């Protein structure tokens, strides 16, 4: 991943959505049109609000239709409010 040139403001974060598998557990391939929107992602940048409890590289679970989609280079990202984050995924 190249250097990101976007700095979220306030209590917002920049997230790289993690794509879901394109194959089911039984081996069937899922077409692009049938895939659901991703609900997990990795935090790429955080805003300047002191209340933010996330940091870069945290894996998160977020609300299904939250955030604003943006394209940087060839990659898709979401800018979202921290309040849209449902949970931090612990490995």
UniProtKB/TrEMBL annotation:
Q: What is the organism field in this record?
A: Bellilinea caldifistulae
Localization: Cytoplasm
**Which family, according to UniProt?**
Belongs to the GroES chaperonin family.
**What's in the keyword line of the UniProt record?**
Chaperone, Cytoplasm
Q: How does it assemble?
A: Heptamer of 7 subunits arranged in a ring. Interacts with the chaperonin GroEL.
NCBIfam families for the chain: PRK00364.2-2
Task: Give the protein's biological function.
Answer: Together with the chaperonin GroEL, plays an essential role in assisting protein folding. The GroEL-GroES system forms a nano-cage that allows encapsulation of the non-native substrate proteins and provides a physical environment optimized to promote and accelerate protein folding. GroES binds to the apical surface of the GroEL ring, thereby capping the opening of the GroEL channel.
Give the coiled coil ranges.
Answer: none
Q: Name one GO cellular component term.
A: cytoplasm
* Pfam families xrefs: Cpn10
Q: Which gene encodes it?
A: groES
Q: Which InterPro entries match?
A: Chaperonin_GroES, Chaperonin_GroES_sf, GroES-like_sf
Molecular function per GO: ATP binding; metal ion binding; protein folding chaperone; protein-folding chaperone binding; unfolded protein binding
> Any idea what this protein is called?
Co-chaperonin GroES
Q: What is its main location?
A: cytoplasm
């Amino acid at each position: 991943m190249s250097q990101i040139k976007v700095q979220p403001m306030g209590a917002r974060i920049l997230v790289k959505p993690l794509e879901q598998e394109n194959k089911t557990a039984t081996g069937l391939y899922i077409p692009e049109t049938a895939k659901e929107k991703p609900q997990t992602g990795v935090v790429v940048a955080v805003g300047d609000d002191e209340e933010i409890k996330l940091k870069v590289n945290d894996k998160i679970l977020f609300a299904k239709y939250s955030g604003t989609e943006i394209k940087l280079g060839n990659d898709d990202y979401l800018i979202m409010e921290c309040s849209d984050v449902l949970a931090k995924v612990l490995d």
